[in-house]
Structures are given as C-alpha cells and as structure tokens.
Amino acid sequence: MSRILLIEDHDHLARLISKGLAAAGIATDIVGRGDAAWHAIQQVAYQGLVLDRGLPDGDGLQLLQRLRQAQVVTPCLILTARDALHDRVEGLEAGADDYLAKPFAMEELVARVRALLRRPAESQTLKPAWGDITLLPESAVMCCGQQSVPLAPAELQIMLTLIRKQGNIVRRNSMEAAGWGLSDAVTPNALDVVLYRLRRKLLAIGSRLQIVNIRGLGYAIRENQPL
User: Which pLDDT score is estimated for 177?
Assistant: First the structure.
C-alpha cells in the first residue's frame, strides 16, 4: 500500500481526507504543523505529500522550499483556499507537482493523489543500492548479482531506510516509523521479526551485507567482515 504524508491542521478535514484515501488503498500519516512534517519526512520514505498552505507555523510553501533545497523530491500536491493564478504559479515555482483549491470534491483529490503517485520522484526512479545490494522499489524486490528476493511492504521500507543511510546508524523508532508509518500502532517485537526476515533474505541471495545492532544506538547495514 502506498503511504503519503498529509500536512493539514484542520482535524476534521484531515480525517475525511485520510478516510477517502484509505478507501482508495492509500495509507496516510497526518501532521498539523510544518515542523512536525519536516521531522516525519526525515523518518519515513513517503511516496507523496499533500500539503496545506495555511499552517499554524507558517506558509506550507516555506516547508516545500526547504524540502526541495534539501534535495527531497517527493511528489507534492498543494491544498489551499488561495486559487488566484499568481498563487498557483507561486506554488508550482516553489516545487509543487500539482495544486488543488479548496473546497474540492473527494473524488478529485483521490484521482489527483493517484496521479501524483504515478509520477515518481527523481529519488524513486533510481535504484537504491549499497554494497552488493540493489533495491527495485516499484516491484518490491531486493537483488544481489543474479539473485533476487521479494520484500513485504515493511521490509522494503526498512531496507530503503537502511540503504539510504549508507552504513550509518538508524534509530529503532525511525525504523518503526519507516516500516509502519507514524499513525499505525506497532507491536513491541514487530521490528525484530522484520529484521530477522531481512537477515535471512540477505543470506539467501548471497549478500555480503548484514544488518547489525549497535547496542543503545540503533541499526546499520554493513559489509560482513571475514574472519
């Protein structure tokens, strides 16, 4: 299931949007402030963003510009009550991929988000790789040489997070957020189960990489050093 981040401070509207997208098979995490959105995007590899311009801590375009400056190219749909031509142009020039004025029909929003998810960001069109491992996100496959293995959704998101860190440490709560989003409740051992499965899959395809536990800090994917 695709997962997007909805940045909308109107609670009732946010719940309606989340419900409408869920019915279309799109999972949604909800935050109501730009600073919370920035934090969430650092933890989860979202497939899309739906961003309200009128946030309590500033114009949503400021957040979008900050993301683009940080090379975050996740596709973004702007929601706003400002529908003048110069407002639309301003949003697109800030890095938005689409623009929808309030009020809107839920059917149109769902259709536009689906279109957004079919327009992969630059980072999503690449094949994330580290060591001898390459991920194919669109088909949820992990490859090592000529060998490959399918990944479940949580496995894929956690491997994407580890590989994008290029051997650096990822904290446990960040990995849980990557695997299950910010909204879903995660059982205490869910991450351990996924890590166990990923380690077995790395062995099965003959990878030299392993997921290591750095006690008290988190996890990292690193090359297995021969004895």
Answer: 81
